[in-house]
């Protein structure tokens, strides 16, 4: 077997990667169902797909679906800390994916790998954080030729795409996979909530009961964080800039405060806003000794790392795995997790496979839809068709053995008529 082009840490890890991928597959019945149909119908035959995604076992199962559907796939990592080297090896040697990813790569290698997968001249993009789209538009616009469209699966990425579209700069149709009801409910809320708590616990082994946890942002991810930390017995404080979201948090029983107010009283801080400088110099300067800093937003900009460096007189790198201790002149110590990158993927394993089953099923079905309907789409941000979202939910319910009611003809008629 001729291996696809690749740059990974060690192909010798492939066997362990196959075992990891198979373990994740056990919890991904919806994706298995989609893969079986794709293998029969070949909806992606002849298409090239470039992806910038977390290189994990769950992602591997998504790419297996695309390969079963006839696509050739090139993959770059969307986060150097989340790459599973054994999964990367298995994707190359067992599943025929061209992979350019290894754990701990530097920024230069990260950027180079994005260009490499774009140089495959893809027809479709699968993006995470808008990095592929941004690289193609800003650095290598000639590589946009031939790209039919793509999918974006993160809140941060959709925000960037909508801004590009509003400024007339987006030259591709991109589908906001992140904005589906199943993605927001299952992935953002339950997945991010559980995996972030998991990351904090793995990195610190701290007791959360009775601690004050400050959650920055009360979007879908922030709600999941707040729920899970409260479930662990924490006193949760929410910070927000959106008055409606802040009111929602108040009505759910959370304390809502400004970051200025929360900074001196928090024991654990977790950001999930999609914005930058949420925790700034003035906040770091008043935090209590031993405060833990973690981020669940896509980019490592939510905590002002330059200010953290400037305020510290010493740094103990790796005081625990995925934890760096910053010492201030007055003796206070702040603990930064996963270098300020996604803590749920840096310090833990990301979302459970059962969560990614639904998110990646939406991704796969949307890729199929794009392959068929791209000619009818204009450059800009499009929504996932509602029938795809509903189909994924139906498949998941069937896998869980859950039945739901259907509307009777009279109910259908009533809902579709304004007459008494």
TrEMBL record:
Listed EC numbers:
3.13.2.1
> Cross-referenced Pfam families, in alphabetical order?
AdoHcyase (PF05221), AdoHcyase_NAD (PF00670)
Keyword annotations: Cytoplasm, Hydrolase, NAD, One-carbon metabolism
Query: Can you give the residue ranges of the S-adenosyl-L-homocysteine hydrolase NAD binding domain?
Result: 188-350
Quick check: keyword Transport in the entry? no
Q: Which GO terms describe its molecular function?
A: adenosylhomocysteinase activity
Q: Name one GO cellular component term.
A: cytosol
The record's catalysed reaction(s) read: S-adenosyl-L-homocysteine + H2O = L-homocysteine + adenosine
Q: Which residues form the signal peptide?
A: none
Where in the cell is the protein located? Cytoplasm
Positions with a binding annotation for NAD(+): 154-156, 188, 217-224, 240, 275, 296-298, 344, 351
Matching SMART domains: AdoHcyase, AdoHcyase_NAD
Q: Which domain of life is it from?
A: Bacteria
Binding-site list for substrate: 56, 128, 183, 187
How is the cofactor bound, in the record's words?
Binds 1 NAD(+) per subunit.
Q: Which cofactor does it need?
A: NAD(+)
User: Tell me, which GO biological process terms does this entry list?
Assistant: L-homocysteine biosynthetic process; one-carbon metabolic process; S-adenosylmethionine cycle
Task: Give, as one word, the top-level EC class.
Answer: hydrolase
Q: Pathway involvement? A: Amino-acid biosynthesis; L-homocysteine biosynthesis; L-homocysteine from S-adenosyl-L-homocysteine: step 1/1
- List, alphabetically, the PROSITE patterns matched: ADOHCYASE_2
> In the UniProt record, does the keyword Cell membrane occur?
no
Give the NCBIfam families listed for this entry.
ahcY, PRK05476.2-3
Among HAMAP family, the record links this protein to:
AdoHcyase
Q: What does this protein do?
A: May play a key role in the regulation of the intracellular concentration of adenosylhomocysteine.
Per the record, the similarity remark reads: Belongs to the adenosylhomocysteinase family.
The protein's name is Adenosylhomocysteinase
Question: Per the UniProt entry, what species is this protein from, by scientific name?
Answer: Nocardiopsis metallicus
